[in-house]
Amino acid sequence: MYPELDTPALLIDLDVVRANVAEMAEVAATHGVALRPHIKTHKMPELARLQLEAGATGVTCAKLGEAEIMADAGIEDVLLAYPVWGEPKLRRLAALRERAKVRVSLDSPDVAAGLGRLGLRTGAPVEVLVEVDTGQHRLGRPPGRPTADLVAEIAATPGIDVVGLLTLAGHAYHARTPGHLAEISRREGTDLVATAELCARDGIDLPVISVGSTPTARHVAGVAGVTEIRPGTYIFNDTAMIRLGVATEETAASRVLTTVVARPSPDRVVFDAGTKCLSSDGAGTPGWIRAAGLPWLRMDFLNEEHAVARLDPEHARYGELPVGTRVQLIPGHACSVTNLFDVAHGVEGGRVTTELRVAARGAVR
Ligand SMILES: Cc1ncc(COP(=O)(O)O)c(C=O)c1O
After folding, report:
1. What is the per-residue pLDDT across 288-343, written as a single tens digit (0 to 9) for each?
2. Cα 132 to ligand 1 centroid, rounded to whole Å
3. Which one of 59, 94, 251, 279 is separated from 42 by 20 to 30 angstroms, measured CA to CA?
């Protein structure tokens, strides 16, 4: 399997990527909402371009560094879904705004004050989305009056233009059943729409209602009043998405190609990739790393450079998966894995056809 590559290596199946991109574009088009994919999953301008060509209106980034790399590649419409704080970053944001349309999300008057100074200094108000906590308890105040009051306070900041509300229902990753996932997703949308209505009654119109992750996007896109979805992981998918029922092994585009380097016992198989290739995200969750096409192999644990797996009793013999066998491991969290590789190898029609540089790898500032 792919003898031209040494292992471990990151493979991206571009046929699967294209199908995943088209499917989510179709979801957005069907519901009449904008699609603004989060690029933290792939960190590659080439793949952002693919998403834009399929109909995305712009991209979402977490960090300024990612946004700068996208702008370097000519991508001109960026939502920076992260509070931008401190003079060095505000200076970079000012420069970025000269070459791209940039909106920023935030959840505090403190961050608004800095952005407002930038807006006044440059004579162009900074457009912001106020983040709402719809249950993940990461950023934002609760929906309803607490957020409406925050919106009013931020809207009163000179140099700021509040254009919408944003949320990430990150707790959807822990949904217990498909029904539970659907319910979280629906609430993600209805909570924001109801809060925007409250703001409108306070005299502040918020045209942008930005929601949606890979698990929730297909449900929340249909909530009346939602205007934008921001899924990221969907382009690659991973075992977390398979567990939630929104992806399958066939739609998992990102794989770490590994080699069996040891068979210490009939049931134990050791691969040449550990947490430095696969990350620790999701570790311990049953099936958090899957060996493609080998359901009878169960990942036991990872060290930095070893993945230790077990064969089920029926396959537990030395002749099974001997040293030198190549296996594709499907990551537990595709986004973290991309960030661990300098390059990915694009696969088309089952053959390696291209090398992709992970341009925004490590862009954490
Ligand atoms: C603000 C924001 N929007 C969108 C997403 C995309 O979520 P997912 O990768 O589950 O599609 C994320 C994920 O971290 C996020 O933090």
Report:
1. 999 999 999 999 999 999 999 999 999 999 999 999 999 999 999 999 999 999 99
2. 14
3. 94
The CATH number of 249-332 is which of 2.40.10.120, 3.30.230.10, 2.40.37.20, 3.50.50.60?
2.40.37.20
- In the chain, list all ranges with CATH 3.20.20.10: 14-236
Q: Which of 111, 144, 104 minimizes the C-alpha distance to 126?
A: 104
Is the CB of residue 60 below 6 angstroms from any atom belonging to ligand 1? yes
Q: Let me know: does 229 contact 296? Beta carbons within 8 Å.
A: no
Provide the 10 A C-beta neighbour count for residue 52.
Answer: 20
Between the CA of 255 and the centroid of ligand 1 the distance, in Å, is 20
User: Is residue 240 predicted with pLDDT exceeding 90?
Assistant: yes
Residue ranges of the chain that CATH labels 2.40.37.20: 249-332
Is the CB–ligand 1 distance for residue 235 below 6 Å? no
- Our answer on whether the CB atom of 20 is closer than 6 Å to any ligand 1 atom is no
For residue 239, which of 290, 275, 296, 274 has the smallest C-alpha distance? 290
